[in-house]
Amino acid sequence: MAAFDDDVWGTHPEDFQLLTHGHLHLFRNEWALSRLAADLAGLGYEVVEVDTASCDSADALRAAVIGAIDDWPSDYGRDSWPGFTDGLTDHLLTTGRPLVVLVLKGLDQVRRKDGASTHTLLDLLASIARWHLLFGRRLICLIHTDDIDLDPGPLGGEHPRWNRHEFLLVHRTDERRPPWLDRA
Fold it and tell me: What is the pTM of this model?
């Protein structure tokens, strides 16, 4: 089963644009997130926000994600990365919920306290997103950061990129808004 039908080619809805560059995308400004979330919700995606700002350990980070996902058994995967990985496979996307946008806010604060756990989480999300795509389910992760030059390096076999609304540095610094934002 293809992740997209041929009629998407040439129309380039937001999800197609994002997924052609991977599953992990950075955003800085709320206007970029609002536009991305609205466009993706309009395409049928469930937008799930996870506030990670107060997380100070791997357990807290896993608990924040688990708490944001409906239907995730509360004790499943809380205590270890392998168990959490199983939970991502079994509960993040399902046949009843095949389109999910996971918005990770406050990850900069976690990265300063526990960079290894942040890296592990993003690495797992990229890998699990690719696995779900094999079954026609789509996961897009939007990662908030205040670091306009953030380059986290390769994660899960892909390289996170800035979303198309903030791809240019002048857009991330708010020196200029992309002109298409005001036209839509």
Answer: 0.90
